[in-house]
Amino acid sequence: MIKKLWPYTRGYRKWIIFGVLCSAGEAVFELLLPLVMADIVDTGIPSGDTGFILMRGALMVVMALVSMSLGIGASFLSARAGQGFGANLRKAQYDHIQDFSFRNIEKFSTASLVTRLTNDCNMLQMSLMMGIKLLVRAPVMLISALVLAISISLKLSRVFLFAMPLLLVLIVLIIRHVGPMFSSLQERTDDVNLAVQENLSAIRVVKSFVREDYEESKFQKRNDALRTTSEKAFGFVVMNMPIMMLITYGTIIAVMWYGAPLVQSGELEVGLLSTFFTYITQVLMSLMMVSMIMMMLTRAIACGKRVIEVLDEVPDITDEAAGQCTVSDGSIDFDHVFFKYSADAEKWNLHDIDLHIKSGMTVGIIGGTGSAKSTLVQLIPRLYEAQEGTVRVGGRPVRDYSMEHLRDAVSVVLQKNTLFSGTIRENLLWGDENATDAEIEAACEAACASEFIHRMPDGYNTDLGQGGVNVSGGQKQRLCIARAILKKPKVLILDDSTSAVDTATDAKIRSAFRTQLPNTTKLIIAQRIISVMDADLIIVMDDGRIADMGTHEELMETSEIYRDVYQSQQEGASING
Is residue 287 exposed (0-12), middle (13-18) or buried (19+ Cβ within 10 Å)? Predict the structure, then answer.
């Protein structure tokens, strides 16, 4: 795992190296201080040599200042390296996610990806920061203090050499139990984030159906599961401290018990015994520090595995076979195409689709819910990839184009209309960032959006708020259509994108398509037959297959499905009238 994460320290490795050196230097100076103190106690005080005491005291002050400076330097350097590493890791994940297909994103879920980009990265970032300071300091303190303690008294050293294996066994047992719990903890965090995301993104639906109590109950269950898992995981961590303190203080008492006779017999001086106490405390405290670091690293490993899963995920739609060709026209061909969302699924979502559309045609697509209308058009810009058969745009297989070139030639207005925080103008410029005011106005006229934009207080500079909360569903649809028109695409796909506008506005928009986009191929998915009845070709989808094709007049004669839908809609219109 370290091998895979190490490249993301690029640009901050010198800070890591200097931080490690500062941390090691701080530990060394702290270890030397007790030896100077021992000289004062054993030599300076008994002899009454004030000059010697002052000199040693001054040396201690200098050493303390150097140690403090190194400690501050280690903290600063570790913080800078940790923050930089975290930023690189988040950017790498975010950039990689941009290459994911819908299938890749669905594998993780949006909530889990958010957790991995934030919570998991923060944990790895903190681990590096703490590791530079503590993971270096603790072993240096442990080994150096152990060597110095043994050099002072081998007899007394046997006491805490007995305590060390106990501490090590304790650390191993706790880590073995707590490791899987930290993995489960991150999964529970995903669940809580998913509940929050769903609730906030669908808050209007929740309130309109008076489901606040249900949502609170759902959140409470997931929050309780997170709390329970946290209590179990951190319960083991908390147990670590009192047990270690018990062993540490027990060891100190044992040293006192066996060290006192050595002082009385003159075998050991008082100053050295005091120094020995300092070293034994540092040895045991270093072990405790190591145990805490190991706990932190155990959780960091769980987070690191989740981050690496994202970084190792191979996008199933790539540009490997693509050339530098651009889309020449809007012709579309499906040559016996088969598709299913899951490779393990028994049934095809699209079955043997054979369809040929000339450039500039207007094509209507109708069918019942679940008939795979949206699935069909999403294969055109390679939002999904067909498993069998070939999809062609402009006479070439879609795989021959880079995704940038292909999607730049295909505008898609999806069922779920998405606007971003910012002004109306900023949202429209997604279609063409270099569009002039005249082009923006023309696109909005074609989409019948200019009429409500001019009524807004700041016109095109009106702030839409997060997700376009300041506009209605119909207005949002028209803005999304205007944004797609502004792109001047070779192919324009409207996936039930006029469902929230009235029939008169729908007719105006279709009329504008004919006059302003004569060479653009228009694919219109609709529930209302009136929205597609004047199309050059109408496709009737049924259970993932093309049931019938033809003009409105032809289908009225030959297609029972089309005729039944048309008659039911006409009867509904008569009743409403």
Answer: buried
92, two tokens: 């790498």
Q: Distance between terminal CA atoms of the chain?
A: 68
Q: What is the C-alpha separation between 339 and 495, in angstroms, rounded? A: 19
Residues facing 493 on adjacent strands: 412, 523
Among 448, 571, 441, CA closest to 506: 448
What DSSP letter does each residue of 132-161 carry, written as one string?
IIIIHHHHHHHHHHHHHHHHH-HHHHHHHH
Digit-coded pLDDT (tens) for 354-386 = 999 999 999 999 988 888 898 999 999 998 889
Q: What mean pLDDT, rounded, does the chain reach?
A: 83
For residues 480, 484, 487 and 491, what is the CA-based torsion angle, rounded to 10 degrees? 170
How far apart, in whole angstroms, are the C-alpha atoms of residue 466 and residue 483? 17
**Which of 195, 143, 128, 177 has its CA nearest to residue 31?**
143
Separation CA 18–CA 132 (nearest Å) = 10
Q: How far apart are CA 482 and CA 296, in angstroms?
A: 51
499-532 per-residue burial string, b: 16 or more CB within 10 A, e: under 16:
bbbeeebbbbbbebbeeebeebbbbbbbbbbbbb
Are 396 and 576 in contact by the 8 Å Cβ rule? The answer is no
To the nearest 10 degrees (0 to 180), the angle between helices 270-312 and 154-201 is 30
The DSSP bridge partners found for residue 525 are: 365, 495
Return d(Cα 554, Cα 549) in angstroms, integer: 8
Own/partner contacts of 75-78, CB < 8 Å, gap of 24 or more, are 75/133, 77/15, 77/16, 77/18, 77/19, 77/22, 77/132, 78/15, 78/16, 78/19, 78/23, 78/128, 78/129, 78/130, 78/131, 78/132, 78/133
The 3-state DSSP class for residue 301 equals helix
In the chain, which residues have pLDDT < 70?
Answer: 160-161, 175, 179, 204, 236-237, 240, 467-468, 499-500, 571-577
Burial of 477 per CB tally in 10 Å (0-12, 13-18, 19+): buried
Tens of pLDDT, residue by residue over 249-267, are 777 777 777 777 777 777 7
The owner of tokens 């913080």 is: 79
Residues 6+ apart with CB under 8 A from 374: 414, 415, 495, 496, 525
What's this model's pTM, rounded to 2 decimal places?
Answer: 0.73
